Every structure is written in structure tokens, then in C-alpha cells.
Amino acid sequence: MNTPSNLDRRSFLKFALATSAGAIASTPSLQIFAKGKDTSRLNQPVKIGYLPITDATPLIIAHANKLFEAEGLTAEKPTLFRSWAQISEAMIAGQVNVVHLLSPVTIWLRYGKKFPAKIVAWNHTNGSAITSLPEIKSVSDFAGKTVGIPFWYSIHNIVLQQLLTSAGLKLDTATTGKIADDAVRLSVLPPSDMVTALANKSIAGYTVAEPFNAAAEKLKLGRILRFTGDVWRDHACCVVLMREEDTTQNREWSQRVVNAIVKAQQWILPNRTETAKILSKESGRGYTPHAEAALDRVLNDREVEQYVKSGAIVHPEWQEPRIGFQPYPFPSYTEELVRILRKTKVEGDNAFLSSLDPAFVANDLVDESFIRTALGEVGGPAAFGIESFTRSEQIVV
Question: I need a labelling partner for 192 at 20 to 30 A (CA). Which of 11, 24, 32, 363 fits?
């Protein structure tokens, strides 16, 4: 039987081969990289790729509410993927042109794999947690056990490792063998496999986006050990990524795509209950396989006091929503992400990280011109409670 770790290694190696220099060199993006001429292909359909998690909410709502059509674009039904490797491969192959992707993965793709793509917006803030078996009461209780992560290059892996090392635990990325009593084995699993793995106790916990944490709660299979947004305040788990060819050659199309995503986020904020209904399996729209009750638990979290009491929330003064929505990609976040990735254990070749300048990455990886224009159309940054385009990152274990 394949263990989660074995599946992880196969997926990772397959992805690395798929994104080799030869595969990437064949993509059209490299042939017209950064020429800067806008050919305005407004007839190009919006092809969304997403995982069935609440991180994808703005992309799904923009499609469901026909916000792309309101911008004069056509949009195909979004394509659902099971893993981050699959969605990244689809982006590289040109099967999709707008995706939500783990923010650390975008750094790996652009600088590790030399794939020309740009972050054009944040998709959400927070929206993830660490879930454990009921008998696990603290991070220290993970000693000698396996914990699932969705991808090596993920905010989940970063936050989990910070908590584990602060508890004096070592990190184990082996696929077989005994786990030391003072170590925790990390194993990559598709988000959709995590609840089942927890139920059969092949893992002691996992860290992932919602609603897989809420699902474990509703099924009474696990408990929220800690919210990631309670460690890194208002962090971006997933960002909106587009091919650089579109951001340089097809700027009007790109602007209209971002406009729709921003308007979707603005609509979600006062319509969280309706959002849960649209995303749910009960709606019959086929966007996610999740029950409305689990989605509503995430989007309309009403149990802050309970989580403060259990220790899942250590910083109630931050008043963090379980999942938030605001689209502006703060440069300070990208810079800190580069710094912290250098200290994070990941599988595969990560030598490229040591040469990255955080300020350069924040400017080179992110194109914030579209989001600034889009925000101007909905009342400015104040529409999302943003007071300034600068902030200081708060990371408190």
C-alpha cells in the first residue's frame, strides 16, 4: 500500500520533470516574454483552474455571478483539480490562464523553474488551520507522529514548521522508517485526502485550507489546534496568478479579469451566507463537494470564544476572521515570505532561494498595476478596510 509520503514523493518528482527546462522552453510565454505590446485579445476566454477550497472563493463567485461577462469577457466553467502539482502543470501547459496558487509556489515557479508568471492580486487572507486528532492537545503532542501538509512550498508548511521548531521538535521528511521521539514527519497529501487520512489515523494531524478543517470538526474526527492567521496575521495563503504573456501582451484583458475578481471579493463580504450556498454541493452547481454547513462554518465563524478557550486562537486582540477577503498584495508580505522560505525545510532543489533579494521579488513577481486600477473602480482601498498600501508583517508563534 502506498503511504502518504510515497504518494508525495512520486507527485513531487513527476511535477519536477513536467516543469523541466525542456517543457518550459516550449511554452509560448517565453517566445514573447516581456515585449510589452498590448494586443488586446478580449475574445480570449477566462479559463480558471482551482482546488475545491475556500481559497478559490473569489474566482468561483466571479464566475457564478457572471462578473467576467459584466466586464465584456467570456468565461468557461472553472476546472477543478485535486492537487497543487496538477494545477501548476495545467497552468504551465496553457490549459488554464487564471489560477489561485499557494503564494510560496509562485516563487518556486518563477525563480526555481523559470516559468514566466505574475501575481496580480491576493485571493483571500487567512483561511487555513492546523487540525489534529482529538487526543492531540498541543503541538508538542505531534512528537513521533506524522502530520500532513498540502505542498512543500506552502504557507501551511511554513507556519507548521515555525510552531514545531518553537516547541523544540525536529523535522522528518523521510518516507519510511521509524520516527524519532523528538521529531515530526511531514508528508504531502492532496487536501481532499486529508480528512480520510485523519479518520484512519495514518496521520495525527494536518494543516490545510478550509473547509477541510471545518469538515473534520463537523464529523467529530478532529479539532482545530491553531489557526494559521493567528500565527501570521492576515497572511495570504493563495494568490491570483496569470501568465506573464497576458499581463504584458494582453493588458486590457488582464485588467478586466482583475476587475471581476475584486468585485467578487467586494460582493462576498456582505454576502457570506449566500456565498456558502453557491459553493456548496447542495447548490447543484458543481463548484465543490462540500456541505453548506461546513462552508458556512468557515465563512460565518461565530465561535471565537470557544477557540480562545481551546488555544486555537492565541491572539484574540487581532480580531482575525477565519477567512478574510481583500485583494491588495502587500509588498512586505512577499519580502517576508522570501526571507522565511530560506529557513523552511522543503524537499527538492531549493538552492535558488539563497540568491533571491526580497525587495526584488516583491517588485518582479507581483504586478500590482491591475489591482490598483481595480480598487479605484470600487471606492479605493477603503472598500476593503485598507488604510495604506504599506504594512508591517506580524508573525507571533
Answer: 24
Residue 91 lies in domain? 4-125+237-297+320-384
Strand ranges inside the chain, DSSP E: 48-50, 79-80, 98-102, 117-122, 125-126, 128-132, 146-149, 170-172, 183-188, 205-209, 223-227, 238-243, 323-324
**Separation between Cα atoms, residue 386 and residue 380, nearest integer Å:** 9
Query: Using alpha carbons only, what angle is made at residue 146 by residues 143 and 149, rounded to the nearest 5 degrees?
Result: 120
pLDDT at 348: 87
Distance, CA of 8 to CA of 285 (rounded, Å): 31
Are 14 and 103 within 8 A, CB to CB?
no
Please state, in angstroms and rounded to a whole number, the distance separating the CA atoms of residues 136 and 143: 10
- d(C-alpha 274, C-alpha 171), whole Å: 41
Of 281, 315, 349, the residue at which a domain comes to its end is 315
**Helix, coil or strand: residue 395:** strand
Collapse the DSSP code of 373 into the 3-class scheme (helix H, G, I; strand E, B; otherwise coil) and give the result: helix
Q: What is the pTM of this model?
A: 0.90
What would the grid cell of residue 333 be?
508580505
> Over the stretch 352-379, which tens digit does the pLDDT of each residue have?
999 999 999 999 999 999 999 999 999 9
**The total number of structural domains that make up the chain:** 2
Region 298-326: mean pLDDT is: 95
Asked whether the beta carbons of 225 and 136 are under 8 A apart, the reply is yes
The pLDDT value given to residue 109 = 96
Tell me which DSSP letter residue 80 carries.
E
What CATH number corresponds to the domain at position 225? 3.40.190.10
The β-bridge relationship of strands 48-50 and 79-80 is parallel
